[in-house]
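Pipeline run #58 for the internal structure catalog. This entry was flagged by the ingest filter as a single-chain record with no existing model, so it goes straight to prediction. Upstream metadata was stripped on purpose; only the residue string is passed forward. Reviewer on rotation: M.T. Logging verbosity set to normal.
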Amino acid sequence: MDDDARVGGECDPRFEGVRRAFADNFTQRGERGAAVCVHVGGRRVVDLWGGAATATSRWNGDTLVNAFSIGKGMVALLAARSVGRGELDVDRPVGAVWPEFAAAAAGKQHVTVGQLLTHQAGLPAVRRRLPPGAMLDHATMATALAAQEPWWEPGTAHGYHTNTYGFLLGEVLRRVTGRTVGRLLRDEVAGPLGADVHIGLPADEDHRVADFLWPFATPPEVEPDEADDERLMVHNTYFNPSGLSGAGVVNTRAWRAAEIPSTNIHASARGVARVYAALAAGGVLDGVRVVERDALAAATVEQVHGHDRILGRINRFGLGFQLTQPERPLGPSPGAYGHFGAGGSLGFCDPEAGVAFGYVMNQMSDRWLSPRNRALIDAVYVALA
């Protein structure tokens, strides 16, 4: 095994197959730098890392990396927490807590919080061209989304709100709690659990962050008169403003400092797995309750399942959490849920088996199905068989 494929960390002997699969990710599946952490029954049984974090440093156990849409699972958790505390009602119109949302554009008066959580609101993108860097300012994005007319009639379809999900739910949560998503995550979940997950990363943590490789060129801007409405919608979902998805800016201090809840969570595998270990146990771990059991159960009931207008494939959601599906399984249990991130990062739990799983890595992929996370998931369940 060459130097880049060296694996560090610890692994219960029963889960030695996970270590082998993780090592094979480097030697056979092109992994650059990554970590995986697994809890079973509240006990950490896998804690592995390997590869390069930057051009001059290796990955270690507390390396952080941008984990993209793993942040959506954290937003879903915070929304469920607010529901459990009586602060939020998913059946209530968004305009009841965010009046500008209903007043600024036609067609949104009856959009509910639940429709935001389930990608049914018709707001995956902003139509008017936003200036570069606009995604770094929450107020700018919230104002633009309040003014945006839905791209489809809310409630009639779902389409992955790739980057806008976090701004939309973030503003709702700010209105009902008085705190931003990043602060809520720190104060109510990450801090009490001791989980190394951050939305809005302090500068003094930069020394722990792995650089993220993004080998794909950003496509040219699409103007409304150059494309049909569907094409413009999909393009703007990812690239309005430029840098919205992280391309060209993901390794900058400005990106790391901003709160872009759908897209710029910085986390270790240990941190992701620890949050999901609490969820696997009904919302409580080591005496710390992060969400009420009933609210969590409601958040993991299927709300939408079918063709996704943005991704162009089948997708399945509860109230913000991705649910396991045959096309993209989270192990064999029908009740598993969590959230994938771009490139293949993943956090999920399987309450039936008591499994909590965190995997983070540092290179972009254009593959919806990652052979690397799939190999790790399969190895976990082989060990449990």
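catalog note: Residues 200 and 258 are 5 Å apart (CA to CA).
catalog note: The chain has a mean pLDDT of 95.
status: ready for reviewer M.T.
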